[in-house]
Design brief:
This protein is mainly alpha-helical and 267 residues long. It has one domain. The two termini are 28 Å apart.
């Protein structure tokens, strides 16, 4: 148990550090870590990714609260945009979580493995400056986009920053506001998806102690404490370390994660 707790704390610390450094949700670390760690503590393969997704979303809720508060104090949250997209974020997150419940763990591993390749590519090839003529869509187009982003992120246990920030930036929302507004949206994506996965006990096979639905409390408690503690350090290091070089190393790490997840899903 001591080794298990220490491993959760280590993974949480790394996810918080990377979130502070790059503004990328901790799910990119938490999900693959749990996918490989949970079988060693007796979880059946059929529910590994479901537990990983729920636990990652719970961790995102905690870290998002801290992040939103910090960005709000600095005027970095566009609350007018947030209010417009909140309903579609909630509905999309619920749809993604329900879809995850009925997908196999192998399929979720495959989708996640492919997604981290996309994130690695995005880190190495950032989008060029957008045209000044682009403005954020309104009405159906905006809400359809947020529904899709929220659904996909909830499906994979992500907070939304890896997709929302580029989306807002593409439409000339200032980067700081894009990050802050994405954090606010990510909070409700995580919370909505988590509630669905916590209420899904009827669908579970061989539930284990210390669980509510698919949420595994020991992993969540340790990871959330460590990630919140280390996120400020990551933000501080972002102003002192050569971030472009760190991004290349992190992209390389994600490529290895993607290969490992795809290998795990097929073999």
């Amino acid at each position: 148990m001591v080794i298990e707790i220490f491993s959760y704390l280590s993974a949480g610390a790394l996810s918080g550090l990377l979130a502070g450094l790059f503004g990328i949700g901790g799910g990119l670390v938490v999900i693959p870590f749990l996918a490989f760690a949970l079988p060693d503590v007796g979880f059946p393969e059929a529910m590994i990714m479901h537990v990983a997704v729920a636990t990652s979303l719970a961790n995102i809720v905690i870290t998002s609260i801290v992040s939103v508060y910090s960005h709000h104090k600095r005027g970095g949250v566009k609350w007018d945009i947030f209010r417009r997209v909140l309903p579609s974020c909630i509905v999309g997150a619920v749809a993604g979580a329900l879809l995850a419940i009925y997908m196999s763990s192998q399929m979720l591993e495959t989708i996640f493995g492919l997604f981290v390749f996309f994130v690695a590519y995005s880190l190495l090839h950032p989008r060029s400056a957008s045209s000044d003529s682009r403005t954020l869509p309104t009405g159906f187009k905006l809400n359809a986009s947020m529904f899709s982003i929220a659904g996909f992120c909830s499906l994979l246990g992500m907070g939304g920053g890896s997709l929302m920030v580029p989306y807002y930036s593409y439409y000339n929302v200032p980067m700081r506001s894009a990050v802050g507004t994405s954090a606010a949206g990510g909070l409700f994506i995580g919370l909505s998806g988590l509630i669905c996965l916590m209420l899904s006990e009827f669908h579970m096979v061989s539930p284990k102690p210390w669980m509510t639905g698919y949420l595994y409390w020991p992993a969540f408690a340790c990871m959330s404490v460590a990630s919140v503690a280390f996120a400020p350090l990551g933000a501080k290091l972002a102003h002192t370390l050569p971030v472009p070089m760190l991004k290349r190393f992190f992209a390389g790490f994600l490529v290895l994660v993607g290969i490992s997840m795809l290998y795990k899903s097929f073999f």
